From TrEMBL:
GO terms for biological process: response to ethylene. Keywords: Signal. Signal peptide: none annotated. It comes from the Eukaryota. This is Proline-rich protein 1. One of its GO terms (cellular component) is cell periphery. The lineage of its organism: Eukaryota, Viridiplantae, Streptophyta, Embryophyta, Tracheophyta. Residues 1-23 have a biased composition (Low complexity). Residues 1-29 are annotated as: Disordered.
Length: 200
């Protein structure tokens, strides 16, 4: 029998493909542009024009003024009575006097006398010592009595020799800014009896 011989087509040689990596074309990307974030502008008003202040010279230094302290007033009051025997009653219209010996230069003293107003129906007198600076040198004495039957001063409570105000306390009245010295009571008496002649 016949021998079967396959008919083979001649071999075709193909060049193996060359591997080419697929690259996308390079794209140029510009670097980012830095944009600073700005706060919105603040508009300030332009200052309004004001004229310069007038020139004031600096005050010269003067020591601080001492606060005003009103002078304390000084006054004397008291009562003048009549003591005639067993009878005692106030004298209206009587007067007292305040005798002050103020020392002056060269060791001398000047005497100043202040008279009270006449006493009222209760025998009360009151006198303000306006011009007397130091009442430590003042004495209060009896002065006059309008009662003819009771005109002789007595030295009861030093009505004749004088009451030294330096020995007396006083009451202070804040509403009147007043120091009040109260003296007495003082007494006038009747006429002195004639001395009785001695009996032999």
């Amino acid at each position: 029998p016949p021998v079967y011989k396959p008919t083979l087509s001649p071999p075709v040689y193909t060049t193996p493909p060359v591997y080419k990596p697929t690259l996308s074309p390079s794209v140029y990307t510009p670097p980012p542009v830095y944009k600073p974030t700005l706060s919105p502008p603040v508009y300030e008003k332009s200052p309004s024009y004001s004229p310069p202040p007038p020139y004031v010279p600096k005050p010269t230094y003067s020591p601080p003024a001492k606060p005003y302290v009103p002078e304390i007033l000084k006054a004397v009051d008291g009562v003048i009575l009549c003591k005639n025997g067993y009878e005692t009653y106030p004298i209206q219209g009587a007067k007292a006097k305040i005798v002050c010996s103020e020392p002056t230069a060269y060791g001398k003293s000047k005497e100043e006398v202040v008279y009270s107003d006449p006493t009222d129906a209760k025998g009360y007198f009151h006198v303000v010592l306006t011009h007397i600076k130091d009442i430590a040198h003042c004495r209060v004495k009896l002065y006059t009595s309008p009662v003819e039957t009771c005109k002789n001063p007595t030295n009861v409570n030093k009505g004749v020799t004088g009451v030294p105000l330096s020995m007396y306390g006083y009451r202070y009245y804040a509403d009147k800014n007043l120091n009040l010295f109260s003296v007495g009571p003082f007494y006038f008496t009747g006429p002195k009896a004639a001395p009785t002649p001695p009996k032999y």
